Amino acid sequence: MNVIFVLNISKSFQTQIIETKARNEQLVHENINLKKEMEIRPTAQELKFYKHQVKKLEKILKNIKSHESSEEENMKENKEFKKGLGGSQLQEVSRRYLQVLCSIDSIIRSPRRSPLITLMQKKGLGKSWAEEESGFEHLPAVIETWADQLMALKILHQSLKKLFLQLVPWHSKTMQDTNEYIRVEDLQQIVEEISEEVGNKEKKALIPSQQTLYAIVCHFQKLFDVKTLNGVYPRMNEVYTKLG
């Protein structure tokens, strides 16, 4: 009976060992899988970056949808506009728009605007100007250049005003800020006034000061041994006569 009991205990122990070994192998396998999964999972920084990209893409998609809807609305409005206008009215409107575009294009192509054409060609925006069938595609770029130049004129006007007020601060009332259209003539006027002021200062610099004149008079009084300015010339004449 003791032998049977020992055998049962031994068998039970072996069963427990087998189950424990199987459980350990399963845990090792799960541990390996977890490590692989952790390697595949993004880090916190990567997750933050991905979230930012997702939000960015959602915003782009939203803009695309709104753009598509606005295009559909514009197409719908154009269709309604065409329906509202008769064939002759539509032709008249198109003819007027064509006249306006042709007028703008003729102004741009005028020989007086050759510096503008040169500037546009340097920017690579005037390559198709010589082509007769180029249409009016170049007009937006030209108008944009004009707008930039007008803004540059306004900035230059502000700089010239500052320089002028530094030279002639008592003219501050006549140089008040204005939001009106800046003309080249305004810039020329300021430049001429600055040049005139600089010229006046140079002339004043050539005129000797009172202290300098007094020193010269004292020098000649001492040189010709006279006490007054009136005696300098007679004494000078007398000396030069003797020397001559």
Automatic annotation (TrEMBL):
Keyword Cytoplasm: yes
InterPro entries reported for this sequence: CEP70 (IPR037692)
Keywords: Coiled coil, Cytoplasm, Cytoskeleton, TPR repeat
Coiled coil: 17-67
GO MF entry, a single one: gamma-tubulin binding
Subcellular location: Cytoplasm, Cytoskeleton, Microtubule organizing center, Centrosome
Superkingdom to which the source organism belongs: Eukaryota
Gene Ontology CC terms, in alphabetical order: centrosome
GO biological process: cilium assembly; regulation of microtubule cytoskeleton organization
Function as written in the Swiss-Prot or TrEMBL entry: Plays a role in the organization of both preexisting and nascent microtubules in interphase cells. During mitosis, required for the organization and orientation of the mitotic spindle.
Subunit structure: Directly interacts with tubulin-gamma; this interaction determines centrosomal localization.
PANTHER family assigned to the protein according to its UniProt record, in alphabetical order: CENTROSOMAL PROTEIN OF 70 KDA
Name under which the protein is recorded: Centrosomal protein of 70 kDa
Organism: Micrurus corallinus (Brazilian coral snake)
